[in-house]
Amino acid sequence: MNDNDGQTDSYYKSLTRRIVLIIVVVSIIPLVLISGTIRYYFQVSYQEKVLDHLKVLIKKHRQNIDTFLNQKLADIKVQAESYSLDQLSDEKFLNERFKILQDAYGRSFVDLGVVNEKGIQIAYAGT
User: Fold this and answer.
1) What pLDDT is stored for residue 29 in this prediction?
2) Domain residues of the chain, as ranges?
């Protein structure tokens, strides 16, 4: 065999490896870039969707809490407007009103107090 044949074979094997490597690299780089871009936009879109869902959930909970508190405030206003200050200042009477509120609304009310215009509590019912 000729020494040139060995070099030629070696050259062609090296050239073949280089061509295969270039083809693999050239085909993989766009694939990696596209995959990375898709992943980034998916992640951004997913985060926006989750945040929007959480905002809606928080808004609903806030509305539920506001509705609950407004209902309880209305219940207290009914008591305040239905009875005189003298009646509500009597702790026995206030305890009766408190028990009625607890019977009607469960443990939503834990106590009930009457405060005068100076901010001093003059009657209390509760635990």
Assistant:
1) 93
2) 84-127
User: What span, in angstroms and rounded, lies between the C-alpha atoms of 121 and 118?
Assistant: 9
What SS3 string covers 62-106? HHHHHHHHHHHHHHHHHHHHHCCHHHHHCHHHHHHHHHHHHHHHH
The residue count of the chain comes to 127
- Mean pLDDT for back-to-back runs of 10 residues, the chain (127 residues): 70 92 92 96 97 98 96 92 93 93 89 92 90
Q: Return d(Cα 112, Cα 88) in angstroms, integer.
A: 10
Torsion from C-alpha of 83, 85, 86, 88, nearest 10 degrees: 60
Burial of 122 (0-12, 13-18, 19+ CB in 10 A): middle
